[in-house]
Amino acid sequence: MSTYGIDLGTTYSCIATLDNNGNPEVVRNQVDASDTLASVVYFESSDNVVIGASAKDMIETDGDRVVQFVKREIGKPDAHTYEFDGKTYTPVEISSLILKRLKQMVEEQGGNVDDVVITCPAYFGLEERNATKKAGELAGLHVLNLINEPTAAALSYCARQFQEERTILVYDLGGGTFDVTIVKMSQVLNDEGNEVQKVTVVATGGNDKLGGKDWDDKLFEYIIQVCCDENGLTPLEIDAETRQIIRSRVEIAKKKLSTSESTKVKINVNGSMTNIVITRDEFEQLTSNLVAQTMNYVEEVIKNANNPNIDMVLLVGGSTYMPMIHDTVEKRFPQKVQLHDPDRAVAMGAAIYASMLVEENMLEISSSENGLTSSTIKKGKFSIEDQTPRSFGPGVYDENEQYVIDNIIKMGVSMPAKSVQTYYTPEDNMPKIILRVFENMSMDETLIPCVNEQGKSQECNVADNVKLLGDLEMALPVATKKNTPIEVTFKVDALGVYVKAKNVYNGEAVETTLHMDSDIDVKRSCVNLVKVSAE
Ligand code: ADP
Ligand code: MG
Known about the structure:
CATH topology of the largest domain: Nucleotidyltransferase, domain 5
Structural class: alpha+beta
Helix content: 25-40%
Radius of gyration: 26 Å
Bound molecules: adenosine-5'-diphosphate, magnesium ion
Mean pLDDT: 87
CATH superfamily of the largest domain: ATPase, nucleotide binding domain
CATH class of the largest domain: Alpha Beta
Number of helices: 10
């Protein structure tokens, strides 16, 4: 099988495929003896780049040449670039190195990666999605599609278990991010009249700066404090080297506490050995406030989804191995919590989706878990329906001649989403129109963009997160009259925005699928349409 699902994570990544029986399985990272690959890149020298656990180990001693958490920057307008040995790397290029390493892991075991589905957070906007896809292509992968991480997790779960209608809350606590998503699984009839399983993202939230690393930090501070108390020092007197040693131990200690009631850490402080015993109880007290924070996001998302009845909670992300997470979530949702393959479920769900996209034949996925009878789901029985992560619309003049974004596709509608709207030319004899395409996070019908029609900055609501995605230019015939109707079509799917403008009088049309990497010349003075005909 050459079809794979990839979870390109902030701290750990994972690649999975379906075995001969159609069961998802993770491709092991043999070098690190792990199912996952640390998303860390170490630029050791101009001809040696190391990815994974050994790169992570270098944070201590050669941190300036190590790049991590690059997912936080992918597709962001203010992303860093990194320079090593005279070469510059963008976040897309760094991500592609991680993806290349995953591909190599498969090849080292005799496999071959052709088609892939890569996962991304449900809240990623179009630029982040395009950048993720580009990283895949740069790594030599054929990216069939992207899928939202919580959807993949739900898919990986329900492909094994059930086929009835359910509302699932996905609680995903990873290394650096916390995502909570409500997905609805339902059965619908498709165009051919067959029953298919539909996965719909209902609401999403979380914090992209809250994750396992914060638990590490708490433990780190605690150990520093004990070292100080035992040796009569202040935290500033603990030297950098000792701090780095402590830093390298905390994640291991944290993981140990997921299965043991206590763990020991030995630290040499200024020549004297300090033995620290940490119990799980102590650790849970240190970090209870972090757990509480995640639950606040859970409540917020439930509220945003209009308080649905939650049938099941899926715990996803390596940090949900911590018993305190399971216990807290279980308390809130008694008997609803499922913990299964938290650090692998996303990649496995992506593998299921990838195979659904390429397999012509019916494929049976069966599995028996916890002694339950095996359930079988046939390929073609799933239709994935995610929501638009943003609102989209063209820049046009409204009735008051104010240049606005006309939000014709709203955030949160089912993808693929399509909207057709007719606008009008505002003057006689316009040689062309330039239709600007915007993405934003507003639910308003119209809003004011941060850049006016002349490309100058203007006052706007920063929280709307308005981004100009690109533009579409269409020449108009000589002597085109004022109020000529122009039909504008927007289509949004997981991979991009398709825009078409059609001159209703002569049928001429131009279309484009926006590529975020193209330079957008916002200074070009633009000729726009009006929302309402002046007649
Ligand atoms: P990502 O954030 O990249 O999606 P993961 O879902 O793999 O990553 O989560 C990684 C986080 O999970 C790290 O902070 C790691 O320390 C933590 N983690 C992994 N295994 C355990 C465990 N057994 N106990 C506690 N934390 C764990
Ligand atoms: Mg993850």
